[in-house]
Amino acid sequence: MKHRTKWTVAVLLAFVGLLSAGRAEAAKGGLPQCTADLAICQTGLTDAQAHLATCTNDLTTTEGELATCTNTLATTQTSLNTCSANLAACQAQAVCGDGGVGSGEDCDVGTLNGATCQSEGFAGGGTLTCGTGCTFDTSECFATRFEDNSDGTITDHQTGLVWEKKTGGASSSFDSRGVGNCLNCVQDTYNWTIAMSEWLSALNGRTDDPATQTGYAGHSDWRPPTIVELKTILDFGAGLCGGGGGPCVDPVFNDSDSFTEASGYWSATSLASFPGSALGFDFGFGFVFFDVRSGTFHVRAVRGGL
Question: Residues with Cβ < 8 Å from 173, sequence gap 6 or more?
């Protein structure tokens, strides 16, 4: 028993010694390992810090770009608002050529909006058109309806007719065709047949060569007026119209150098039911009449047409 106890103690001491030695060895070998691990951690920390710095820079850059984008977006929105306002203003404005008369326009394609030369202050009438920029073109409007052309003719701007201007007096003689030596004398009268043929031919510069024919006032297309055309120069407002001794015509046809008789004038219009008769117009009282063609009345030629 005494020996067993000594052995046990010896074993325990030996075990304790081994355990102490192992701990010493472990302590001796673990410090370098910890140092290596610490170095690795520090390297990782440095890398992590570098990555963090990079991320921080990237974040700063991104925030700057975001601010720029925000400013650009705000500018773009402002421009869009301006464009929208301009578009609305343009759409509100009239468009010349769209067929409708809008604000700031006088007229448009196909419409004068009820306007005429007269409504635009041109008493003589004429042709009002829609010109450039949808404004009225009054170049074919006239201050007075009738215009003395100072060449022996009178133009009616409303109808486009050009009338022979009659002079005072009467012919002193007549040729074998029955035509007087004063073609434009207001007092001369003719029967319908001579008026429509011989007198008219002489007025147009009778010749066998149309290329050299020169008629009255430089024209060779004079013709007798229709009854409708004769009535267009009627003016009941003329001072002596209606039996007062003066003709019912616009004053331009009866002034100091232009004359009209207050009597009947032949027209080119005849009646099928009365082949031997023709219509005329009385400028003394302003009425249409018909008479046999052998009757004698005054004549006035015209050119152009309604």
Answer: 180, 181
Which residues, including other chains, have CB under 8 Å from residue 152's CB and lie 6 or more apart? 164, 165, 184, 216, 217
Note whether 252 and 230 are within 8 A (CB): no
Task: Give the residue from 234, 219, 239 showing the smallest Cα distance to 280.
Answer: 234
* Phi, psi dihedral angles at 74 (to 5 degrees): -65, -40
Instruction: Name the residue ranges covered by the structural domains of the chain.
Output: 33-92, 94-143, 152-303
Per residue, the 3-state secondary structure of 19-54, as one string, reads HHHHHHHHHHHHHHHHHHHHHHHHHHHHHHHHHHHH
Q: Do residues 182 and 169 lie in contact, with contact meaning Cβ atoms separated by under 8 Å?
A: yes
Exposed (0-12), middle (13-18) or buried (19+): which is 178, by Cβ within 10 Å? middle
Amino acid in the structure at residue 276: G
**Phi–psi pair at 210, nearest 5 degrees:** -55, -25
Asked whether 136 and 127 are in contact (CB, 8 A), the reply is no
The predicted model gives 137-142 an average pLDDT of 93
* pLDDT digit string, tens, across residues 170-215: 999 999 999 999 999 999 999 999 999 999 999 999 766 666 678 9
Does residue 94 contact residue 104 with C-beta atoms inside 8 Å? yes
Residue 171, H or E segment: none
d(CA 127, CA 123): 12
The first and second tokens of residue 69, run together, are 């984008």
Q: Find out whether 235 and 241 touch, Cβ atoms under 8 Å.
A: yes
DSSP 219-261: -S--BPPPHHHHHTTB-TTSTTTTTSSS-SB-GGGSSSS----
* CA-closest candidate to residue 225, choices 274, 165, 163, 183: 163
List residues bridging with 297 in a β-sheet. Answer: 190
Residue 108 predicted with pLDDT over 80: yes
What is the rounded distance in angstroms from the CA atom of residue 220 to the CA atom of residue 303? 9
DSSP 8-state class, residue 270: E
